[in-house]
Amino acid sequence: MISATFLIIGSSSLILFATIGFFILHDNITWLDQWWMDVMETIQFSPLQWLMRLFTIFGDILFLSFIVFGTMIYFVKFNKKRNAIILGTIYTGYIIVNQLFKRIIERERPPVERIVEVTGSSFPSGHTMGAVAIYGILLLFVFYSKKQMPYKKQLTMTLAALPFAVAFSRTYLGAHFATDVLAAAFLSITVICYTLALPIFKNKNQSSPKS
């Protein structure tokens, strides 16, 4: 039953991703992108720019790699190899899928003055994909854990907030269109759900991911 739920959510997210992709292929800058760029332009000031530079680090692939490998070592040490493999699979999956679609849809970066240096295709956002994929699966591990965890509520809220912070920072800094980060979020949800729906990760004693 849980696997079916993951498949439904994952497929729905994939359809939403494909819908966004369809629109930007026919109109590179959508009304949503233009509106959001106008909004971002009105709230540009130095203290917020510094904060956005900080937030965007949480979606950087090197930063996420440290988190992933450190967490995998923790899982293996405490006999949670299943969680380690799931995390590693999602980490690898999001990178491959992101690079694949960047090459398929070679979208130019937003025509704005960027606060950070960026290269390559704009669609979908790699930082946002990474943040949603990694913090998303860690959020599920924490949320469904039955263990007594210190500051569990605070950790859950932090993991839930980080993807939003990273996504916002990427548009604020001029690195991505709004549709880049939306599509990236939907695609990462698909990667998470399809991974958890794989038969090899089904646990007879667990109906949902736990740590």
TrEMBL record:
Under SMART domains, the record lists:
acidPPc (SM00014)
Q: Which UniProt keywords apply?
A: Membrane, Transmembrane, Transmembrane helix
- Ranges for the Phosphatidic acid phosphatase type 2/haloperoxidase domain? 83-196
Q: Does the keyword Transmembrane helix apply?
A: yes
Residues passing through the membrane, by range: 7-26, 50-76, 83-101, 121-143, 155-175, 181-201
* Organism the protein comes from: Savagea serpentis
Q: SUPFAM superfamilies per the record?
A: Acid phosphatase/Vanadium-dependent haloperoxidase
Q: What is this protein called?
A: Phosphatase PAP2 family protein
* Claim: ATP-binding is one of the keywords in the record: no
